[in-house]
Amino acid sequence: MEEGGQRDRGRRAPATAQAEERRIFLELGEQNFDAICLSTYRTACKLRFIQKRCNLHLIDIYNVIEAVRDAGLNAVELNAGISVTRLENLVSSLFNQLSKRLPTTHTINPQQSTVLLVEFLLAAIECEPDSRLTVLSVKAMLATLCGGKLVDKLRYVFSQVSDPNGVLVLSKFDQFLREALKLPTAVYEGPSFGYTQTLARSCFPQQKRVMLNMFLDIVADPPQCLIWLPLMHRLANVEHVYHPVSCSYCRSNGMTGFRYRCLRCRGYQLCQNCFWRGNTSGSHSNKHQMKEHSSWKSPATKIGRALSRTLGCVSSREPPHPVYPEEPERTLNLANIVYDMTSQHSHIYYTKCQKVIPTRSINFDANKQKRELIAQLESKNREILAEIKRLRAEHDAVCQPSPEKGSTNPTLLAELRLLRQRKDELEQRMSSLQESRRELMVQLEGLMKLLKAQAAGSSHSSPSRPSPSAVRSVGAVPSQTHMYPPQDSLAGVGGDVQEAFAQGPRRNLRNDLLVAADSITNTVSSLVKELHSGSHKQKHTPFVVVLCAKLHLRLAARIFSWKS
Q1: Which residues contact 209 (CB under 8 A, 6 or more apart)?
Q2: Using CA atoms, how far apart are residues 293 and 237, in angstroms rounded to an integer?
Q3: Comparing 185-199, 205-219, 228-242, which segment has the lowest mean pLDDT?
Q4: Does 343 have pLDDT greater than 50?
Q5: Region Disordered: start and end of each range (predicted)?
Q6: Is the CA virtual torsion 167, 170, 175, 179 positive or negative?
Q7: Which of 66, 161, 324, 394 could form a disulfide with 172 if both were Cys (CB 3.0 to 4.6 A apart)?
Q8: Dihedrals φ, ψ of 262, to 5°?
Q9: Which is nearest to 555 in space by CA: 506, 518, 501?
Q10: Helix axes 150-161, 135-145, angle to 10 degrees
């Protein structure tokens, strides 16, 4: 098969193949990645460029698995060689399916991508002497260069290098490393990340049994030979991340990608291009420890997250990868089942295990388990329905009144209506009493002003008799004061009356009226005594006496109506 692959490759146009191979490496050289001082970043940047140039970043590991299965390579031994034509068909199917999935606004050239990727893979294979194109080399390189999540890619790799019990086979993992490390060698990074025979054992030095979750720790703590692999995925994640700060060396307004902050020089930050190339300024040195940032967080966000960690609201450290079951899932291989329909009862023979299992017994056990499960579900369903029925009956009993309660319902409603009617009548009467009280207070104020004026008058001055119109004007004041709210019922009344009739928290209207009547009686008595003494003889004395008597009679009538 390998010889066929060499013949297929020889039949291809050598000028076209060499031109495409030179083209991708020429474009790689134009990016000036060799100026990057750190070999890890240099290797990751080169392989990321190859990945994007071949459009492999648009293909995830599941697309690769599907294409490998369609090509029939999933049932082939890993060490089996394949031809270049078969490799071209596999890669071509990958990009043809990709072009169908992409939207119309994003198109690719499947043929060009196929030629570029095939030539790069063949160039990587030829970097090592006496190497050949195998199924493992194709799977390892495609799984390493494709897009998607790193955890998913490592799970697929582990499925290829582990035994049926889910334990890593060191010899298979060594073969995987040999093939995967041909990619850094193809971009001239072999001295830093080339293959050696001790690499596989150095990746897991203390573990005798390496299971899936231990193998996935490569994501957080990769071995030295694969340290560029997680970095290549981080590069893909931060390509469009913007940091609104300026670089301390190139003074660029904002950074894109990684941001590096010095832990010794306060406020010293470098963009990824300056840091990778070792550019420094001022007192900063390349020996200073730098912290890599893949996202921008405002100071307020940092303070909030720090407080949340301090108070235990959020976990300070997230797991690097999900935890998967150690035992692999066992599936039934239907290719080994043979049906025997010659006898009365059909049987299933497993050719590998040489076990004979009656079909009827298998069906009986399966049906029995299904019937038991259905019976349990039906029983649970009946319990739920009974509980719903009981709760609904209780709800109806509470919401709907009983017949006994229903018979008394009209009486209760009639009593409620009477109470409401009585309440309205009392409120109306209270309102009228308040208005009458205010009228009396205003009239009393006018009277007390007249009495004070007479008492304070001198002997040579004789105040004129108040005309009936003036008295009527005093009595007409309430028509203007009805606009005041009830709490201001004494507004506009003199201080003497306010002091005697001010509303307290719990004043009694009847008591107020009685006090007012007594006050008027005492005032009139004192006035009559003073008039009879002969010191003052006023012409309007009879009128004042008549007015006081009328006011006294009104107060008495109001008190009588209140008592009734």
Answers
A1: 167, 168
A2: 12
A3: 205-219
A4: no
A5: 453-489
A6: positive
A7: 161
A8: -75, 135
A9: 518
A10: 160
